[in-house]
Design a protein that fits this description.
single chain, 734 residues, Rossmann fold, Dimethylsulfoxide Reductase, domain 2, 4 domains, 6-stranded mixed sheet, 28 helices, 17% strand
Length: 734
C-alpha cells in the first residue's frame, strides 16, 4: 500500500481553504483542513472534503466525445479538434464570424487555466457578443465599481476581522462562505465580532444560517433594498451624521446624493420594505456612530430589479459614514499576484460608456460588453442576420442557470455548431456536437487569480498537481486553440506555443518587464509561467532579480502552507482609475434610475414573491453529482411561511404548484417561519431531470429548476443583470 500526503488550496469558492489530502494507492482516502495553512488555519466546509469524489466520479468526462444524433462516440484529441475545426469553419463560411458566440460559466473564475486564459480566448476570437454568468451574479457590482473607481473588478469588500458592526444584506456567508468577499471561517469571524462587543445585523427576506448566528435579523421585501438604503442616506443627512473621513478630498457629488435622498424618508419606505421607520433610523445611527463598521451587499442585492441602485448605495452608505478604505470598513484587497482580469481596461480610459451596441432581437443596450444572458435563447432561435449559429460554452450550464431556461434548452438543438469545454455531460452540454473535457481540480495546479482582489489578508499559497493527467491538454491549451479557430485559423496552422509566447510577452511588457527577460526568467509555457510573472511583478515580487528578497513562484514552492503579507491596507488612491482621478458619488446614469425606484415605493404589491437560495453543500448546479453532498434531507423544497401556506392551502411535505408569468413547477412544500410572510424561496442550481445527461447521482436528486419561473424581461436595466429575486408567483396545491 502506497500512501502520500499533499497540501492544496480548495478551488471551489472565495474561502480558498487549505487542504491536507491523503492519497492511498492512487485514490483520495481523506481530506481535512490544513491546520498550518497561513490563511484558513484548518477551517474547511463540506464541499472541500468532496474534491476526491469529484476527481474519481465515474460520470466525469475524461475523453473527448462527438455527438451524432443521440449517440456519443469517444474520440482522440486530434479527431475532436478536427471536428471543432470543421464545424467552426463551416459556420464562418456560411454565415460569417458574426454567427459565433460563447457562454462563460462561473467555474471559470476558480480554475487555474480558465481564469488566466479566457481573456486570450476572447482576444483571439473577437466574437461580437459574449454571454456569461456575470449577468446573473454580480454585474451591478462591476458597473458601480467601474463608475465609482474606474475598474469593473475594483470591488471593495468588508474588513470582517477588524469590524465591530457588520450589516449583511442579500448575502448568506454561512452557505456561500462569502461572495466577492474572501475570508476564511467567516462564521468564526462573525462570532469574533460579537465576542469583542460588536454587532452583526442581517437584512434578508429569510432567516438564513448567517442570520441565526447574528445579533439581529431584519426581514425585507425582495427588491426593495435600494429603498431601504436610500432611507439610510436620508437619515445620515437629516441627522448630520455624514463624515467622509480620510477620503473627503477625493469625493464629488455629495450634495447631489443629499438631494436625491430627500424624498426617501424611513416613514415613506417602511410600507414598501416592511421595515419600520424607527428600525431604519436606529440601524443608521448605530452604523454611523461605530468607528469600525462595514455594510456588505451581495447576490440578493445584485440579481433584482434595482441591482445597480442597491449596489451603488452600499458603497455610498459606507463612504458617507467614513467606513470606506479604512480598517474595519470596506477596503480593497492587495493581491500578492495581480490578476489578469484586474488589468486596466482601455475601454474605461475615458469613463464608462454604455450602449455601444444593442442586442439584435430585443435591442437591449450593452453594459460593459454584455447583454442579459436571457437574450441568448432568442438570439439562437430568431432568424435573421446575426443569428447565432455556433456556440461555445466554457464551464457553464446555462440551461439550469439562465432565466427563460426552457426556451434556451429548446433553442440549443437548432445550432449548427455547439462545442462545450466541460467535465460533465449535463443539461447544457448534452446539446453539444463536441464535448472537450478539462482536467479535474486535482490534476492541475492552483493559485487563485481574481479572488484575492477582495481578500481580507494578502495571503496566498501555490499547490501543485496530485494526479498526473498524462498527455491530456489543459484548459488553457483548448481555449487558445478554439479562440484561434474562431478567428478564422485552421487547426493545422495553429501554433499554441507561439500564441502563448505572444500573450505572455504582452503581459510582461504591460508590467514594465522586457519580454525577453521574462521569457528567459520564467521557463515553461502556459499558466505556470504566467503565475510566476504575476508574483514577480506584484507588490512583493522580485521583478526578475531587481528586488533580491522579493517573491517568485519558487518562494511559494518553498512554503507549502502559504505566505501571508498581512491585512488589507488603505489603497483607494492607488486603485482609483477614473478619468479625473476622483470618486463621483452621484453618477448621472445611476441618478437617472431613481424615478423608477420612487415609482416602486408608491406601488402596492399583493401576493407572493419568489427568492432564490443556496445550501452549504451545494455549489450552483455542479456539485449535485456527489453522493455525500446530496444525501439526507431533500433540500430542493419550496420554503413558505405558515400563514402563507394556510392561505394558499398547501401543507408541509405535500406538492405545490408554483407559477409565474414564465412557467410552472411542482415541488415539495417546506413550511417554516424562517421565511418572512409574503415571500417564498426555491434553491437555484437544480432541475437534473433531462434525458441524455450522464449525471447519475444528480438525476436521483433532480429537484426543479427555479429559472423556469424567471421571466426573461425581468432584469435590472442599468446593469443588464437578471432579476431572479422578487418574482411574483402564485402557489396552489398540486
Amino acid at each position: 500500500m502506497k500512501s502520500s500526503t499533499h497540501f492544496r488550496t480548495c478551488p471551489l469558492c472565495e474561502a480558498m481553504c487549505g487542504l491536507e489530502v491523503q492519497v492511498t494507492d492512487g485514490r483520495v482516502t481523506r481530506i481535512r483542513g490544513d491546520r498550518e495553512d497561513v490563511w484558513s488555519k484548518g477551517y474547511l466546509c463540506p464541499k472541500g472534503t468532496a474534491l476526491g469524489a469529484l476527481h474519481h466520479d465515474p460520470d466525469r468526462i475524461r475523453v473527448p466525445m462527438i455527438r451524432t444524433g443521440d449517440q456519443w462516440e469517444e474520440v482522440d484529441w486530434a479527431t475532436a479538434f478536427a471536428k471543432c475545426d470543421e464545424l467552426i469553419a463551416g459556420v464562418i463560411e456560411r454565415h460569417s464570424k458574426d454567427a459565433i458566440s460563447c457562454y462563460i460559466g462561473n467555474p471559470t473564475a476558480h480554475n487555474f487555466s480558465l481564469g488566466r486564459y479566457v481573456g486570450l480566448f476572447i482576444g483571439l476570437s473577437q466574437l461580437p457578443v459574449v454571454y456569461s454568468a456575470g449577468t446573473v451574479d454580480q454585474w451591478p457590482k462591476n458597473l458601480t465599481s467601474a463608475l465609482l473607481y474606474g475598474g469593473m473588478w475594483s470591488i471593495p469588500t468588508p474588513d470582517v476581522p477588524r469590524t465591530d458592526y457588520w450589516i449583511v444584506m442579500g448575502g448568506n456567508p454561512q452557505a456561500s462562505q462569502g461572495s466577492l468577499l474572501a475570508c476564511a471561517d467567516i462564521l468564526g469571524e462573525l462570532d469574533g465580532i460579537k465576542a469583542r462587543g460588536g454587532k452583526v445585523v442581517v437584512i434578508d427576506p429569510r432567516r438564513t444560517g448567517t442570520a441565526d448566528r447574528a445579533d439581529e435579523w431584519i426581514p425585507i421585501v425582495p427588491g426593495t433594498d435600494a429603498a431601504f438604503l436610500m432611507a439610510m442616506v436620508n437619515v445620515l443627512f437629516e441627522e448630520d451624521l455624514v463624515q467622509l473621513g480620510d477620503v473627503a478630498d477625493l469625493i464629488d457629488g455629495v450634495d447631489a446624493v443629499r438631494a436625491a435622498a430627500a424624498d426617501f424618508s424611513p416613514e415613506h419606505v417602511e410600507q414598501t420594505t416592511r421595515i419600520p421607520a424607527d428600525v431604519i433610523r436606529r440601524i443608521t445611527r448605530e452604523f454611523a456612530s461605530t468607528p469600525r463598521a462595514a455594510l456588505y451587499g451581495r447576490i440578493g442585492t445584485c440579481n433584482q430589479e434595482f441591482g445597480t441602485l442597491a449596489s451603488w448605495l452600499v458603497d455610498v452608505v459606507n463612504i458617507l459614514t467614513g467606513h470606506f478604505d479604512t480598517p474595519g470598513g470596506i477596503m480593497f484587497g492587495k493581491p500578492i499576484a495581480w490578476g489578469v482580469g484586474s488589468l486596466p481596461n482601455p475601454e474605461l480610459a475615458d469613463g464608462v460608456q454604455l450602449g455601444k451596441w444593442k442586442s439584435r432581437v430585443r435591442g437591449i443596450p450593452e453594459v460593459l460588453g454584455q447583454v442579459p444572458v436571457s437574450c441568448m435563447a432568442e438570439e439562437i432561435d430568431t432568424p435573421g442576420p446575426g443569428q447565432i449559429k455556433a456556440l461555445i460554452t466554457i464551464a457553464g450550464n446555462p440551461v439550469i442557470s439562465a432565466p427563460g431556461a426552457a426556451r434556451l434548452d429548446a433553442a440549443l438543438d437548432e445550432l449548427e455548431c455547439m462545442i462545450s469545454l466541460d467535465n460533465a455531460l449535463n443539461e447544457t452540454t448534452r446539446h453539444a456536437h463536441v464535448l472537450l473535457p478539462g482536467l479535474s481540480a486535482l490534476e492541475q495546479p492552483h493559485f487563485d487569480d481574481l479572488i484575492p482582489m477582495w481578500q481580507v489578508r494578502s495571503a496566498a499559497r501555490f499547490t501543485d498537481v496530485i494526479f498526473d493527467a498524462g498527455d491530456r491538454p489543459a484548459e488553457w491549451e483548448i481555449l487558445t486553440r478554439l479562440g484561434a479557430m474562431c478567428a478564422g485559423m485552421r487547426d493545422a496552422d495553429i501554433d499554441v506555443a507561439m500564441l502563448d509566447d505572444g500573450f505572455f510577452g504582452a503581459l510582461a511588457e504591460a508590467q514594465g518587464v522586457e519580454p525577453s527577460v521574462a521569457l528567459a526568467g520564467s521557463p515553461g509555457i502556459g499558466p505556470l509561467r504566467l503565475l510566476d510573472l504575476q508574483i514577480r511583478t506584484g507588490p512583493w515580487g522580485d521583478r526578475y532579480g531587481d528586488v533580491p528578497d522579493g517573491l517568485s513562484l519558487q518562494s511559494f514552492r518553498d512554503a507549502p502552507h502559504g505566505i501571508d503579507q498581512g491585512p488589507m491596507v488603505p489603497r483607494v488612491r492607488e486603485i482609483l482609475a477614473t478619468p479625473d482621478g476622483r470618486i463621483d458619488l452621484a453618477p448621472a446614469i445611476v441618478l437617472a434610475d431613481l424615478p423608477r425606484l420612487a415609482a416602486r415605493v408608491e406601488r402596492t404589491e399583493d401576493g407572493l414573491v419568489l427568492t432564490s437560495r443556496r445550501h452549504l453543500r451545494s455549489n450552483n448546479s455542479w456539485m449535485h453529482n456527489v453522493s455525500i453532498l446530496v444525501k439526507g434531507k431533500d433540500r430542493c423544497t419550496l420554503l413558505i411561511h405558515p400563514d402563507d401556506a394556510t392561505a394558499a392551502g398547501v401543507t408541509h411535505g405535500d406538492l405545490a404548484r408554483v407559477s409565474s408569468e414564465a412557467g410552472t413547477v411542482e415541488i415539495a412544500v417546506e413550511v417554516s417561519d424562517e421565511m418572512m410572510p409574503g415571500v417564498v424561496s426555491l434553491p437555484h442550481g437544480w432541475g437534473h431531470d433531462k434525458a441524455g445527461t450522464r449525471m447519475s447521482v444528480a438525476r436521483e436528486h433532480a429537484g426543479v429548476n427555479n429559472n423556469l419561473l424567471a421571466p426573461v424581461d425581468f432584469y435590472d436595466p442599468l446593469s443588464n443583470n437578471a432579476a431572479v429575486n422578487g418574482i411574483p408567483v402564485e402557489v396552489i396545491p398540486a
